[in-house]
Amino acid sequence: xxxxxxxxxxxxxxxxxxxxxxxxxxxxxxxxxxxxxxxxxxxxxxxxxxxxxxxxxxxxxxxxxxxxxxxxxxxxxxxxxxxxxxxxxxxxxxxxxxxxxxxxxxxxxxxxxxxxxxxxxxxxxxxxxxxxxxxxxxxxxxxxxxxxxxxxxxxxxxxxxxxxxxxxxxxxxxxxxxxxxxxxxxxxxxxxxxxxxxxxxxxxxxxxxxxxxxxxxxxxxxxxxxxxxxxxxxxxxxxxxxxxxxxxxxxxxxxxxxxxxxxxxxxxxxxxxxxxxxxxxxxxxxxxxxxxxxxxxxxxxxxxxxxxxxxxxxxxxxxxxxxxxxxxxxxxxxxxxxxxxxxxxxxxxxxxxxxxxxxxxxxxxxxxxxxxxxxxxxxxxxxxxxxxxxxxxxxxxxxxxxxxxxxxxxxxxxxxxxxxxxxxxxxxxxxxxxxxxxxxxxxxxxxxxxxxxxxxxxxxxxxxxxxxxxxxxxxx
Length: 476
Known about the structure:
single chain, 476 residues, alpha+beta, Outer membrane efflux proteins (OEP), 2 domains, 11 helices, 4 strands, 63% helix, elongated, OMP_efflux, membrane
């Protein structure tokens, strides 16, 4: 017996040595988290991402829309189910390194062939009167069994940790969806306000053109202009009226886009369309770039995905080592139900341990190991790319905010000058000191400049939303 135990120990030792010596060496990758010290020369640790979205957006109508979207948006609800799937994966991984215990009950019937070794033994055995073995032989079984794999190399433990890490990554994925959803609703809302103001300007311009058309018709009757001038003004009125319906279509589509984000069928979007011109972009504090690592959900998600991939490499590496299993069973078995619970006659039990180690043809294990390493390298590059993308998004939006502010000031002056030129051109036209084409071009330039001013204002508000999103705000 001692010799058998020694041989068994030697076999296990050789298996461990062989498995450990034949594990391929891999070249992994460590992700770099280095970022510049600041976005500009001036550095400020105050970060707008720390502000809750209900405080960052002050329009009560917009706040109500975002609140509804966070409750009803289908994409967000789909993401929540992804979290539940990841949570269930943790339960499955946790159960793998705990003992499996089950109850077994069975009923069977066994007819042994006469001309077999078992049949010959049964028929050749000495049988006492009243103790004959039934033929065919019934079989009744009732017992409890258990199996347990000893997690000596932390394979199962690391698999559970990887599942937990992926669960946390799905939570960050949900936060990222929330951040994007808040930004998308806000951007669509400001686009809707801009369209309302464009429609209002078009309506005012139509009225101005109609008034000018009346004057042109009177001057034509006085033979001061020709029919060409009347037709030109009439065509300009029709063109502007057509633009009115184009804007109305854009308003309908934008309203329905918001309704889709809110998870509801088309209905009017409550808004204060007269407040657009007075809206001022909220002051933004970008903080320092290193704060992105803690604020941006997509960066944290990429970091957790990298951690899970590193654990997967450890799990795959553990496949090269022997696995240790223990199995046990206890119960009752008899060919007659009346004998089933007799103790100790019908009692059965078993206890066994096993060691399974890969020796030859480990191609499948090596392939899994190589794949796990490649995925870990992919996750490292993805983490670095996510950090770089986040930094560039913030830098771009900060430059955009600065440039749009200067552009808006200049376009405001342009609109003011062109608005004054409308009155001047009309007065000059009435006194025959200006051509009708000058009046038309002035009207057209003024309309375009007002549209551009509204578009610039909308871009300013969008930049305010996008910088908040780029800094990682909106999910908390």
